[in-house]
Every structure is written in C-alpha cells, then in structure tokens.
Write a structure and sequence with these properties.
By secondary structure, the chain is an all-alpha fold. The protein has helices spanning 2-17, 20-41, 47-66, 69-84, 95-102, 112-119, 125-131, 136-152, 165-185, 191-207, 212-225, 251-266, 272-284, 286-289, 294-307, 311-324, 327-335, 338-341, 345-358, 363-371, 376-388. It has 21 helices and no strands.
C-alpha cells in the first residue's frame, strides 16, 4: 500500500500546505506511527485516510513548534478539511498537480526527473543519485533547494489552464521519459526505475485522457520495454536492435503500445513522443514480417528532427539514410553536425558503421566510439565490429 499511496498522499498534503518538504516529513512521521500502532490495533478500514489524518496533525505540530507564520494558514486549512470529511471519504488525486509543480519553469530542468522520483514515487536521494551518477549528498542538496524554491516562489499546485497546458505538459512528459532513460542506460538494467516510469506514464494517461502526447509517451515506453529481454545475451553481451531475437520480445506489451498509439493518432495532433513511438512501432513489426521497413522510417526521422532538432535525432536520421539511400548519404548528413558530433558517442558509432559499409577505413571512428562508451558490453561489441572492419 505504501508504494502506491506515497505520491498520492504527499501530493494531497503538499497541495494544501504549498510545502513539499513539510508534507514529506509529516507523512514520514505518519508512516512511522502506523508501523508502531497497526501491528497492535490492526489496519484501519481506510488506511490512506488514517495516514492523512495523522500527517495533518504532524503538520500543525511542526508549524506550532517552528513558529512559521506563512505555513500556519495552509496548515489550518488542512485541519479544517478534516472536520468536514467522513471517515471513509476518498482522497482526491492531486498527483498531477504535484508533477506540474516539480516541473515548473522556475525549477532547474535537470532536477525535474529526480524531484518527481522522490516526491511522487518515494525514492531517497541516495538511490536517485546512484541512478543519475551523482553523489547522494549532492543530489540531496539539489532536491532540498528545489523544494525550497517551490515554497519560496509560491509555485502553484495546479493543473495549468487549457491555454498554457501545451507549453507546461512537455516538461512533465520529459521528466517521465528521463526516468525511463536512467534505467535504459544502466547496464545493470534498473527494472525498478523502468517500471516506475511506465507506471507514471500510465498515471498521466489516466489523469489526462485527452492528451495525445501522454498516450504517445506511454506507447513509446511500452515498445521499448517490450524488448528488455533481448537487449543482452545470456552472458550479458550487448545485442543491437536489428540483431535481437524477436521471439524474446513481449508481444502483448507491443500490441498494447500499438493500441495506445492508434488512439493518440486519431486525435490529429502529432508530436514528438507519438513520432518516436511510431518509429518503434516499425521496429516492432519485424516480429511479424521478419524485416525492418527502413524506407518507412526515413520520413518519421525527418519529421522528428524538424520538430525536435537534437543531435541524437540528426544522427538517427543519418543511420536510416545510410540504410535507405546509401552510406555516402548518411555520412554527408553526419558531416553537417561534425563540430557538435565529435563528443557524441552515437555520432562516432554510426560514422564507423557507415564508413565500414562504404569500404573506407573505419578504424579511427570505431576507436573514438569505444573511447566515449561507458558500458563495457557495448565497448566489447564495438571492438569486435572494429576487428572485422
């Protein structure tokens, strides 16, 4: 119960106190008291309501003890709500409001995903720091500063109006995607993070059922997660996408992703995550046809690059150009981003592959790709390719 209730309860209390840290501390006290009392008295009929009641009283106690005037009014409001509720009253779901607060433009974008991991999912700073390759104390300081910013700047806990929602939703989606990326990039395969990101994506589609990009993001994550069992060999060796055994893919998960993408596409408002999901849908179709329809990928990559002109999308388009038109075309496309690409591992990896297919010397490009690769399994795979070049 604690795992799924944590973010819901923090969001409920924080939305009323306007203080995430205060809400977390009060809820931590409530869980501690529950661990002491429930084994003796039994679990109450409405556990979430019990925890909120205790947390409310902890909030008031802290405010009284600290003598913080600007916290007193929201704390008293929280207690006033208690008097009007029945014991079995269902708590409103405020998690979407909390997610928008965590990704407010006033908060450093680099902290959006870590802040959501802590406030919505209950991860501690040490675990988040380990996933982000940041020392736990450093991550803890960043999170404390972000929460203080929410309180000091009086960042609202609210779903933005329809007029500004298109501008405010992308950071929320990006933070969920970044959470999934932490697991994807981890050679050990942090399945807990991947599955939490999937759960957050599902939550977004439930709370924002009319948002096609939320559907697109969930579809994208499902397509990617469906291949988790094929990304590494039995010995931990890296297996590239076009060499993966499709029998190891989760067909039911991919089918669910296809359904979500179809619903999103029917809304007639294409966006980044829908396009990325469509790209993954074409790769997933190899399980049915035995072939990758590279020509169908090219217009999708072009649309994605025009919409989100990142170096990664540029490199992805170059790789597909190399398949569809030929290695010369792919290399010419890479050369347009040569200055930025020289510190980007995928730029060198794709360049090495295209040079090899062109019949040119790919050794230096493979060497640079290997130098920039932190994953030992991927380094070994690139070294083996370089040896055959």
């Amino acid at each position: 119960m604690a795992r799924r209730s944590y973010g819901r309860l923090v969001a409920y209390i924080a939305a009323r106190t306007r203080d995430v840290a205060l809400a977390e501390d009060a809820l931590a006290d409530a869980f501690r008291i529950a661990l002491e009392r429930w084994p003796v008295a039994g679990v109450p009929r409405n556990p979430e309501g019990w925890l909120v009641t205790v947390a409310r009283r902890q909030v008031l106690g802290r405010v009284r003890h600290q003598g913080v005037a600007d916290r007193a009014t929201p704390a008293l409001t929280l207690l006033a709500e208690e008097r009007m509720e029945t014991p079995e009253a269902a708590l409103p779901d405020e998690r979407l409001k909390l997610m928008f607060a965590c990704t407010h433009p006033a908060i450093d974008a680099a902290v959006h995903a870590p802040l959501m991991l802590q406030t919505v999912l209950g991860f501690d700073a040490a675990a988040i720091g380990a996933a982000c390759l940041v020392p736990g104390p450093t991550m803890g300081q960043r999170l404390v500063r972000a929460k203080a910013k929410i309180r000091a700047a009086r960042i609202p806990f609210a779903v933005p109006d329809a007029a500004v929602l298109p501008d405010r939703l992308p950071p929320v989606l990006d933070a969920v995607y970044a959470t999934f990326g932490l697991a994807w990039d981890d050679p050990a395969g942090r399945r807990d993070l991947a599955e939490e990101a999937l759960w957050l994506a599902e939550l977004l589609t439930r709370l924002l059922p009319g948002a096609p990009e939320a559907l697109g993001l969930r579809a994208l994550l499902l397509f990617s997660h469906a291949r988790r069992g094929a990304r590494r060999g039995a010995d931990g060796a890296f297996v590239p996408l076009d060499e993966q055994d499709t029998a190891l893919w989760d067909g039911a998960m991919a089918a669910r992703a296809n359904d979500l993408l179809a619903v999103a596409a029917a809304r007639g408002a294409p966006g980044r995550y829908q396009i990325e999901a469509a790209i993954q849908a074409i790769h997933a179709d190899r399980a049915r046809t035995g072939l990758t329809h590279w020509a169908a990928l090219l217009p999708l990559y072009r649309a994605l690059r025009h919409l989100v002109p990142t170096l990664g999308n540029h490199v992805g388009e170059a790789a597909v150009l190399g398949r569809v038109v030929g290695p010369d075309a792919g290399l010419a496309h890479l050369d347009r981003m040569a200055d930025a690409g020289r510190q980007f591992q995928p730029w060198w990896a794709v360049r090495a592959n295209l040079l090899h297919r062109q019949g040119a010397d790919a050794g230096p490009a493979y060497a640079e790709a290997i130098r920039l690769t932190p994953d030992p399994a991927l380094r070994a795979w690139l070294a083996a390719r370089a040896g055959r070049a």
